[in-house]
Structure formats: structure tokens, C-alpha cells
Amino acid sequence: xxxxxxxxxxxxxxSGSIVFAANFNAQAEKDRKAFVNYFLKKFQDPVKNHAQYxxxxxxxxxxxxxxxxxxxxxxxxxxxAWYKPSREQxxxxxxxxxxxxxxxxxxALWNKPFANGKTYSSCFPKGPGVRNDYPYFDTKxxxxxxxxxxxxxxxxxxxEKPYKYGKGKIAKVIAYMAxxxxxxxxxxTIPSMAAAKAYEHGKKEFYKQRGYLSLSCNECHVKSAxxxxxxxxxxxxxxxxxxxxxxRVKGNGTLLTLQARLAGCVKGTGAEKPKLQSKTLxxxxxxxxxxxxxxxxxxPDTRK
Amino acid sequence: xxxxxxxxxxxxxxxxxxxxxxxxxxxxxxxxxxEPKFINHLTVKHGGRVVYDMYPTSAVxxxxxxxxxxxxxxxxxxxxxxxxxxxxxxxxxxxxxx
Amino acid sequence: MxxxxxxxxxxxxxxxxxxxxxxxxxxxxxxxxxAYDATSADAALQGAYGTTNVVKDDKAVLKLPDIAENGAAxxxxxxxxxxxxxxxxxxxxNNPRPLAASWELTEGTxxxxxxxxxxxxxxxxxxxxxxxxxxxxxxxxxVKVTVGGCGG
Lengths: 304, 98, 152
Known about the structure:
heterotrimer; B: 98 residues; Immunoglobulin-like; C: 152 residues; mainly beta; six-stranded mixed beta sheet; three-stranded antiparallel beta sheet; 11% helix
């Protein structure tokens, strides 16, 4: 009995300190669990909850073409997670994916020394496989830092001009880093009050209605996830950041970063395009990535 | 421009997958701008014999993906990939079968 | 060994350096570069083979998705069960230039090839296989090409 009491006392002392540090993410954890449960429930049995969540598809089509139930990790595949014909086609496109050329380019850029002789390894001592460490909240500057910013910070620190954000060389370098980070789990933390504020701001941006159609991220990627919008299947917000940077096949194929994708989607809904690396997009990516904590990365990937 | 390959031999059949870096642009022929630039002949040779002989047009997608298989191959054999485009550019690469 | 005469496609469309590699008898396309410039499927067929007489049977096998995820890269696999077939050609009916690609078949090569093609819009894709006797076998498949909805 006494041994047990001592054990409990020691455990609560240790966990007490952990709980104190984890206090800042208490609300985020509540949000995240609700988020994950919503999606798991939705895609558990599309036949059973057909009327509620999949009204525009026939039960016959679901039985023939849908894959369910979806596991947590399945959400890494986005809108390809449940629709079998699309999965098959993308599997064929991925037999020798076009993004492998982008990753090769990124590797070459990563290994090329700056004018001062140093390489990216000097800023990323753990190597390129650190995609899952981003975005993170920098408690010194009190800002969310994205992987693109980290890459450019390294360039500037070593006397090089920063890359333009969104696509091109920066996307290639990040693609190489993502490729090296495959299988690593997302582990965003909220280490301070300021970080919690940034998280809440990101959450607000996610639920905010914008543009002349008054659409929010939530409207399409939570409430309508799984439904079709013209010829597109709406991807679930859960797992949305795992395939970044994404190689979009549309229009002859472009590699895009998360920042570019977020900005492009907002513009696509008829709202004003936010600036890449703005506080809005950085905090939004912080919130969005946090929601997928625990999911393994699989980037880059080929998508529509 | 770059030729990537995955080439494996099982029994005596070699399965070759190629990803060739090339714009395969239709240019103004496809309603776009500029002169068309696309691979119009691609061959693969094994032991001096042609084992793949393709005549693409600009209707083949950018960075063409190619998959084929041929008999009579052994691990360690070398195949020679060569392509030429409509502007006269060309590239070749030797690939070892695994 | 049969040697081929080479004259690449598109040389007639673009003023560029023409390389002539004498290797022997020609491919249907290298012999008939006009086929490339044809703007209708029938004209392409006529230009490449000198006839539009084809037999629709199971000797030509064409694998394509029902709905293309993206018209710029549609995965396709062509094959034939015929031994000693001479060549295979893909024609995409609704492309500005329907003649898409051609293969000369060689002994020892399994007559099954995969690649990715561009389709401008919904329509038929045909595979033409010329057998050892010069007869043409055809397979046709309709592929729906959608335009992306969300964009961005």
C-alpha cells in the first residue's frame, strides 16, 4: 500500500510538471480530438450515414467504388483516401512520379555550397529530414516559423538572396526535405501563452467566412469533406498538410508549397488572396498542422 | 535533360521504367505559344539490338513516362536509351539492369 | 538484320536541323510525317496506314481510365495478343492533332507499353495494331476529361 502511494506521489510530481507545461495546449487538444473523431466517424460507414454525409452519391456507387472505414493514417491521402477509381489512376501516375525529378533538383540544391562555402547542413544539423519539425512557434520572436522561412533564413544568414516563396526552387528544396522526412510523425507543440494565441488566431482563420461566396475552410474541408464540388472531391482538413509540398498534375504539373496552396485555395473561393508567409497563413498552417498531430508525413505527393 | 530509370530483371525478362525530363511542348500547334519542342523518336538497345522503338508526338505528356519489357536479359546487362526531339536535340544514357 | 530509315516527326512543321540516320525500312510514321499534321482521326489513320479499313476485335487491347483525373497526363497501356504484329498506334480523336504516338514492334519485346498522354477533351482514344499480314485491328475507349473545379 505504501509502495503504491509513493509510486503515485512520484508519478504525479513528474506529470505535474508535464501538465503544467502542457497547459497551453489544453484547448487545442480538445479541438484536435473532436476534429479527428468527426472525420473517423464520417468515413466509418458511408453506407450507413449516406443520407447525412454523402447525399449526392448513390449507395450502389459507395459499395462499388468507396474504401471504408478509413484509419487515422489513411487521411494522409486526402481526397484519394476513399475513392477507388482515383486511387488506381494516381497509383499509375505514381509508378514513376513526376515529383521524383523535383526531389532530385532539390537534392542538388541542398548539396550545393553557398558562396561562402557552407551548405544548408550548417543551419539544419540534423539533416534534411526535419519536415515534421515545422511549423513551430518560436518563443523568442513570438512568431510561427514555417519551413520555407527557415530555408530562406539559412540563405540570408549565409549571404545568399532568399528564394521567392510558393513554388520553384524553394519548393524543390522543401520537396527534398519532405522526401527525407517520410514516415516521421507531425508533432506541433504549443509552448507558451503567445503560441496558444497564434493557434487560436489560426483556428479563427480556419472558420472565418470570406469572399463573395462566404466560404470558410470549415465549410468545404470539414462539413463538406467527401462531397463533390463539380469534378473535384473535397479533401478532409485532417491530414491536409502531410503531402506538402504537393505536385499538382493540373496544367502540366507544378510543385507547390503549403503556403501557395492555402493562398491559392482562398483565392479560388473568390476571396482576396492572402500574402505568402503572412501572419494569417502562418497561423492557419500552425492550427491546421496541429490538427494532424501524430500522423506520419508522406510528401511530396501527386495530386490533382 | 535527364533520364531516370528503374530497370529490373526477373528470370530472363527485363522490365524497364523510364522518366525522361522533357517539356513535350506543343507550342502554338496546341493553341499555346512558341515553337513546339517534343521528343519524336526514342529507342532502347540491348546488345546492339533495338528492344524499344517509339515515335511520340507532343500528345505524350510532359516528362514522358515509359514502361516496357523485353526477353533475353540478364542482371548486369547494359541497355542504351536514346532520344531525339524535333529541334534536333538528343540525349543518351546507359542503364544497368538490376 | 532489318535496318530502319529515320525521319523524325514534326520536322516538316518546324524549320530545324533534320538528322537522317539510315537504319533501313521505315516506321509508318517516319514514312508518312504528313499523318502527324492530320487534324482528324480518319485523316491521321489514312495518312499513317493508307487506309481507314480496320477490324474491331480483341487483338488490340487498350487500357485507360473511364474518367481522367487530369487531361494533361492520362495513363494508358496498349498491348496486343498477336505475335509478330508490326506496329501499334494511338489516335486521340478530339486532339488538335489526333496522331499521338506509334511503336515499331521488335522481336523479343513484349508488345505491351505504358505511357501518359494528353487529351484535350472528352472523346475516343483508339489503338490500331497492324498485324504481320498488314491487317489493322482496332480498340476504342471513351475517356471523360473533366476540368478541375476548385482551381487555385
